[in-house]
Design a protein that fits this description.
The chain is mainly beta. The chain contains no helices and 5 strands. Strands 1-2-3-4-5 form a 5-stranded antiparallel beta sheet, with no helix packed on it. The radius of gyration is 16 Å and the shape is globular.
């Protein structure tokens, strides 16, 4: 497809399964180097690891571990971990990005 390898704000993502974990790798992200909150370079590579784990006492939670690889900006990869707990009966409304 024409233009699919051109950098964009959301980049280009590829996913694969590693056991029960979904691994999503994103590259070709437009750099943010003009005073943005999170600077980046054209070498930025983002790896997300999604898994569902049981919660002590019952229930489940979704774990999203995100690692930012960007050697020109960071001396070592930066990893954050987000946990989303299951909430039966809770309705989530539509969210529109600004």
């Amino acid at each position: 497809m024409v233009g699919e390898d051109l950098p964009s704000r959301t980049g280009r993502s590829y996913a694969r399964w590693e056991g029960s974990q979904l691994v999503i790798e994103t590259t070709n992200i437009l750099p943010d180097s003009e005073g943005g909150r999170y600077p980046s370079s054209p070498q930025l590579r983002v790896v997300e690891r999604l898994s569902i784990e049981p919660v002590e006492g019952g229930g489940r939670q979704l774990i999203n571990q995100i690692t930012f690889h960007d050697p020109p900006v960071y001396e070592q990869p930066v990893t954050i971990r987000m946990v989303f707990k299951e909430a039966p009966g809770i309705e989530v409304g539509e969210y529109i990005c600004p």
